[in-house]
Design brief:
Elements: E1 2-5, E2 26-37, E3 46-64, E4 71-78, E5 86-93, E6 99-101, H1 132-157
Parallel strand pairs: 1-3, 4-6
Antiparallel strand pairs: 2-3, 2-5, 3-4, 5-6
């Protein structure tokens, strides 16, 4: 049995220390307003601790960096959802021009990336013929179907009458 931590679908690992390769491009105060896991790996030979999620952020304030849109869709490697409150987020633009959400061991020491620093791979790499947008839509559709199935089960198995 293998243990997989953020190694699914070519998934890159999240940075855990501060150095030149895990600097940030954008530091914001934002709230997670949408959080959708990619399909959970269904393989009995793996114990999955974390896997890629799509996280939508509503930005309240840019602390460092530049952005045009008050909402950002980014990739994170998570075990479960983020809390729904405003937090400080460190984002790194990846090779597909999207953002990875960084999990830094020492965020107070994080620095803005210098010009020319190599961009990291996205936490989720699309296969040939796929895009992050198509993977996102599939993740949302699967998440919504799971939530509907759960609600249906609760309706059918609840002891409480409506």
């Amino acid at each position: 049995m293998a243990i997989v931590i953020a190694a699914l679908s070519g998934c890159a690992t999240t940075p855990t220390s501060v150095n030149e390769t895990d600097c940030y491009d954008l530091k914001v105060r934002a709230k997670a307003i949408g959080q959708f896991p990619t399909p959970f790996p269904n393989d009995p030979n793996y114990i999955v601790i974390s896997w890629p999620w799509f996280v939508d952020l509503e930005v309240a304030r840019v602390i460092d960096g530049r952005m045009n849109d008050p909402e950002i869709s980014a990739l994170a490697v998570l075990h479960s959802r983020y809390v729904d409150k405003t937090l400080t987020w460190f984002l790194r633009e990846n090779t597909l021009g999207e953002y990875n959400i960084l999990r830094l061991a020492e965020p107070e020491k994080a620095k803005k990336c210098a010009p020319g620093v190599v961009r990291p791979e996205p936490y989720l790499r699309p296969s040939e013929g796929e895009t992050l947008a198509s993977l996102r839509q599939a993740a949302i559709a699967e998440w919504e179907a799971e939530m509907e199935a759960e609600e249906q089960w609760l309706r059918e198995n609840s002891d409480v009458e409506d």
